[in-house]
Amino acid sequence: MAVDEEMKPTVSRSSDPEAILDAKDPLAAAGFEDPDAGLSDEERAAIDRKLLWKLDLRLVPWLSLLYLVSFLDRTNIGNAKIVGLQKDLGMTNSQYNATLTIFFVSYSIFEPLTNVLLKRLRPSVFIPIIMMAWGICMTCMGLVKNFSGLMAVRWFLGLAEAGLFPGVGYFLSCWYKRSEFGVRMAIFFSAAALAGSFGGLLAAAIAKMDGIGGKRGWAWIFILEGLLTFIIGVASFWCVYDFPDQAKFLSDIDRKRVLRRLAEDQQSSAEHEEFKMDYFWASLKDWKTYTGAVIYMGADGSLYAFSLFVPTIINELGYSSIRAQLLSVPPYAAAAIVTVAVGFISDRTRQRGLCNIAVCLVGIVGFCMLIGCETAGARYAATFLGASGIYPVIANTISWASNNTEGVYKRGVSLGFIIGWGNLNGIVSSNIYRDDDKPRYYPGHGVVLAYLVLFLLGGTVTQYLLLRRENAKRRRGERDHWVAGLDQSQMAMLGDRRPDFIYTL
Question: pLDDT band at 130, cuts 50/70/90?
């Protein structure tokens, strides 16, 4: 969340206003020590850059790997389909779509609960456990013999994976300043695009194991990727860290620096907040939870439709199954690059809404081309625009919601609801590309286009305008009465409803 540069941080852990007013350093008076007191601005900036680099190396690469594996595991069923999964299990088209749908049912239902569990159990315990669980589910997908078995395993896969994406988004938001979070979230989410790219290459290679051990190529895709996930889950007990106040890879001095940085950014992530139902209800009463859910609905519904069916779409352009796997790689690679670039730009400009609008328009053009163009080459080019217009808005929307929701638990609950509602639309995405509609898939492309225009673009414009209006009221002092007569602790409880809290646009 961009804080107006003329405003000074008001974060406090003290209920004695006089002590804060008298202190030369209000943050120190509030309990946030400054281990670099007395150093010049240049020296402090150098220390801050070194600390940020340490956080980036420890947190972002491994978590990105986990999401790459997660997205690979939930979407590789699309790769398995074009090498014989549906035929070998004797499934009808509607049964195949049902196996896609059931994943999103369990995935969405349990997402709002996972961030509270993450905070209670600690990331270094919760994340490895759920990874090992979904690794087992993935391996079992390669052993199923019929439609019922695949349905059961996909249900539990959704349940196990539910905690990763909202959990990591919430976790990273508790480490970085708001102006730093977007590009880190973008790098993390770009792993989803890389998973699509890497998944096509991997599936093409593994499918050549067809017949080994009496297993079909699609079965080996699930078995090998599931075993890899389980191994990475075990390693995560040592490679996933806890929240800033508990992270063991930091020295005491660096831990104080991290907490102070968060306090300077007016983040309650710096404090030891205990869970209260008030935070849950505050999230449900916040209009931003619902506008964020609508925006994420437009982004996620489009994302899953694209990622689950792009190998099939390319296959229908006239290419063989192996070549279709390989041709699905470049659009995802382009999307990964654009995702990181948008994260960087939105951090620098603090205009996440405008970035969403610009990127969304690219996706709209892409799907209009898929509907209207006749040649295979033009429609393949459209997949580049579609991917580049969908993937970046996922990370940017989560960053936008995190920036504008203050309070550790409120942010966690809000992200759970926003992401959960978005993923629930995977149920729609799983059923819009039907074999009856090939090779042009007009209904599927039309539904994705509607999601992009109505929910992603429409929701973004609505939230952007409402936030601009609210910021104007706060700058004019029209919200100052909200804090009249409140002490410091009561003001802190207001979170993003404090009148000095200026929303990121």
Answer: very high
Record the pTM: 0.78
Which tokens in the block code for residue 311?
A: 């190998």
pLDDT of 30 > 90? The answer is no
**Alpha helices for 82-121 (secondary structure H):** 85-88, 93-121
The count of other CB atoms within 10 Å of the CB of residue 340 is 18
Give dist(CA 326, CA 313) in Å, integer.
Answer: 13
DSSP 464-498: HHHHHHHHHHHHTTTTGGGGTT--HHHHHHTGGGS
- Give Dmax (Cα) for the chain: 77
Tokens of 283: 């999230």
For position 351, what pLDDT does the model report?
92
Q: Residue 230: CB partners within 8 Å, gap ≥ 6?
A: 131, 132, 135, 136, 139
Domains of the chain: 55-243+282-476 (1.20.1250.20)
**Confidence tier at 468 by pLDDT (50, 70, 90):** very high
**Which is nearest to 400 in space by CA: 450, 343, 362?**
343
Token pair 């194991």: residue? 209
The predicted pLDDT at position 32 comes to 64
The answer to whether residues 403 and 2 touch, using CB atoms and an 8 Å cutoff, is yes
Residue 92: which region, alpha, beta or left (left: phi > 0; alpha: psi -120 to 50)? beta
Tokens describing residue 329: 């790689």
CA atoms within 13 A on the CB side of 387: 29
Report the chain's mean pLDDT, rounded to a whole number. 83
pLDDT at 8 over 60: no
